[in-house]
Amino acid sequence: IRENIPDKFVSIEHLGFVKDGEEITSGPQVEDWAGVLENYSFADHQGNTLLTVSMDSNQEFKPYFQETWPKALKKLKSLCETN
Fold first, then answer.
1. Tens digits of per-residue pLDDT, 9-60?
2. Pairs from 47-54 (Cβ < 8 Å, separation ≥ 24)
3. Which end of the chain is more exposed for a tag (fewer CB within 10 A), N or C?
């Protein structure tokens, strides 16, 4: 976690990835990924929480995130609303 402002903002800096249960933090596959920031902003909007997500990722990862973000955000919404 690079920065955390409770109830307002969380920034995650990627340092590598996990493959087959192993942390990979160096090598050619990590070079395009390391240092990428994933930012979450939370704001009140008419009594509801508006979540804004931004990421400064390489375009190569765009198809992956277009497929996975909707699933991840749906799961996050479910967790937030049941706890």
1. 999 999 998 999 999 999 998 888 888 899 999 999 999 999 999 998 878 8
2. 49/80, 51/76
3. C
